[in-house]
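Q: Could you predict the 3D structure of Amidohydrolase family protein?
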Amino acid sequence: MSNGGTIRLTNIRIIDGTGAAPVENGEIVATDGRLDYVGPRREHAPGVAPVRTLDGGGRTVMPGFIDTHVHVSMSIEDSVQARFSEAGSYAKYKTARRLRETLDAGITTIRDLGGLDHGTQRALDDGLIVGPRARIAVGVVSPTGGHVDMHLPNGECAHPSVDGVHCIADSDDEMLTVVRTLIRSGADVIKVCTTGGVSSPTDQPDDLGVPEHEVALIRAELERHSRPRQLAAHAQGAAGILAAIRGGVDSVEHGYGIDDEGIELMLEKGTFLVPTLSSALRVPDPALVPKYLYEKKVRWSQIARENVSKAIRAGVDVALGTDAGVCPHGRNLLELAHMVELGMSPAQAIVAGTANAARLLGLSDELGTLEAGKVADLVAVSVDPLTDIAALADPDTVELVVKGGVVVKDLTPAAATDARRTA
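A: Sure. Here are the predicted structure tokens for Amidohydrolase family protein:
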């Protein structure tokens, strides 16, 4: 249906994303893509005529989830041969499929932190392809030999499929030029690498990348522009995390090595942590990845488990982000189970994936909670996420997805009933 009509959900349990207790036997009404009513089921006054009524069958309804760290133009399943040989147009079709899979998994908004371009973002906005709404970084910035420099010592590129993501800057002037170019290319967020990384071939997560003064330089550049943009830092080692926070980033991505000083500084400045546990805790088959990557994964997965858990206990603001592309697409809500494993309650994990994620993206006036006046993004699931949050990792448990008032993944015919009603 178009977003020009009214949709009513009844016989549902509502978790609204604020952290409040669920509403039993609830009702949600949305008109023209906006939420009209969220609360206990009511008797409708005369003249109210929903054009579509859905019986939720006791399912739990939550806000559409927001994944603040994805790479939909990349896939961990792609072989090195595929990266070299696939034509660009074929890769675009695969990206479109991943976007659909992400939406079907219950993610109605993404922040793509390297790879997705403005053309694909516009195609999503205009409905030419189906997927979440997207905020984009376009490219990722690091120095030569840093995290996004994927060249091996022999000069060959280890990951040719992400060549367009590489943005190398080795001086203040080069940094400003790169940032301005990314803004011209449609970037909603600038992503810089203040450390090396697990997947990059010639550096380590403890290595320093973009220095603090250049992070501050980018922050000042972004503030020259009337349109708000975010600043995110790939930051894994402790020193680079501190450089990112002191330089003024909005979010620390990964944050595996965060120490007590970093935690205290994040709490002081209100910096978000996006721990990407779906990637951090996933140790790949050593037969399928280079030796350097496997060895770093084993070591840094344990480091992440210890330090991110400490940050969660300290009360650092956490937003859901998976690093999908470095881990499988379409299983984004596995991240919630990992958050619970490391110390969150299921309700807190849901807030991290809804209200907190919207706040990080500057979208909390529109998205992130089920409240009258906000955009009608919601999902209905067949399990109780407060007692079995791990089940949400299976996209089949997400049985209904509504984005902007449009049903984009429908209930089974037996569970959904269309009805034109008069009061």
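Q: Anything worth pointing out?
A: Confidence is low (pLDDT under 50) at residues 414-423.
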